[in-house]
Amino acid sequence: MTGQHDSSASAGPEHGHGHGHGHGHGHELEGKRGIKGLVSKVGHALAPHSHDSADKTDAALEGSSRGLRVLAVSFGVLLVTAAVQAVIVVMSGSVALLGDTLHNVADALTAVPLAIAFSLGRRAATRRFTYGYGRAEDLAGIAIVLIIAASAGLAGYEAITRLFDPRDMRAVGWVAAAAVVGFLGNEWVARYRIGVGRQIGSAALVADGLHARTDGFTSLAVLIGAGGAALGFPLADPIVGLLITVAICFVLRDAAREIYHRLMDAVDPALVDEAEAILGGVEGVERVGSVRLRWIGHALHAEVDILVSHHLSLVDAHAVAVAAEHRLIHDLPKLRAATVHTDPHGPAGADHHAPLTSHR
């Protein structure tokens, strides 16, 4: 027995899976004796795994479907919001409201790259893209961050321009009403996108929700500017616009950090702690080695090392790996696939990876 074994689980038709077990089983590492026990163990080791096309893939696909629904609904809400504002732009001649209207249209259009990303993420893995197309969400997230940055730049430019060239505003009450409509529409979309994005684990959808929130702030700037114009203080609009630009920059920072963490394979350390605790509770695991987690789209993948007794047979070590994998897939939220590597724990002083020392 070499003491090393990989047990890979991929819940999806795009990945092969080299072992299996049903849901209503138990692994007895010791105590099964005779031909019946040996046949049972070997049969278990060779059986196809029940997770190949089960819950986790269904959950990931449902996450993509929910993401597409969110984008479709929010796209419609923002277009209606922009249409209402456009009518009032014609009535009032407000340049600030025109900018806010165009901003809302741009925000609605950010749904396009995200929709493409969610659609791509549903495609099966290939021999070139062996992990599938989930990373398309991160690329869409980069596009959204760039759009937020452009929004901040445009808002700042318009505010500075209006600071040096104040303009009169007609139909101030209607402009204020349009600003309220813009804020409410964007805030509703922001809450919807951010809420579902966090539920399905999509950093790009969360970033898009944050972008919608920046547009809501811009609408509030129009409202306060309209109030200032009504009170005979036209400079209120550009001054508040500058403050809103600063607020947008803070939102930009949060969105950029979210996408950066995904691109760098960062995860919440609490997830690592949870995975270690799950593995440590598996019968036969004497120690937990390294735990590596990464997001691919809105699905979590794991690669873990566990140490088992060096007295175990290959079949028994495999059974421990299967049990560990099974527990991880069921107990770690949003985990779609796990690769479990077993190492022998002992004998004292043995180096089971000596041939690999020069390669590490």
How would you characterize the overall build of this protein?
Strand 2 and strand 3 form a beta hairpin. The protein is α+β, with helices and mostly antiparallel strands and 360 residues long. The chain is built from ten helices and four strands, in the order βαααααααααββαβ. The chain has two domains: 113 residues, Alpha-Beta Plaits (2-Layer Sandwich), CATH 3.30.70.1350; 202 residues, Up-down Bundle (Alpha-lytic protease prodomain-like). The two termini are 23 Å apart. A four-stranded mixed sheet has the order 1-4-3-2. The radius of gyration is 27 Å and the shape is elongated.
Helices and strands in order, then pairings?
Blueprint: E1 5-10, H1 34-46, H2 55-92, H3 95-109, H4 111-121, H5 136-164, H6 172-200, H7 203-230, H8 236-263, H9 269-280, E2 287-296, E3 299-309, H10 314-331, E4 335-345
Parallel strand pairs: 3-4
Antiparallel strand pairs: 1-4, 2-3
Helix pairs in contact: 1-10, 2-3, 2-4, 2-6, 3-5, 3-6, 3-7, 4-5, 5-7, 5-8, 6-7, 7-8
Summarize this entry quickly.
61% of the residues lie in helices and 11% in strands. The chain has helices spanning 34-46, 55-92, 95-109, 111-121, 136-164, 172-200, 203-230, 236-263, 269-280, 314-331, and strands at residues 5-10, 287-296, 299-309, 335-345. A hairpin with a 2-residue loop joins strand 2 (287-296) and strand 3 (299-309).
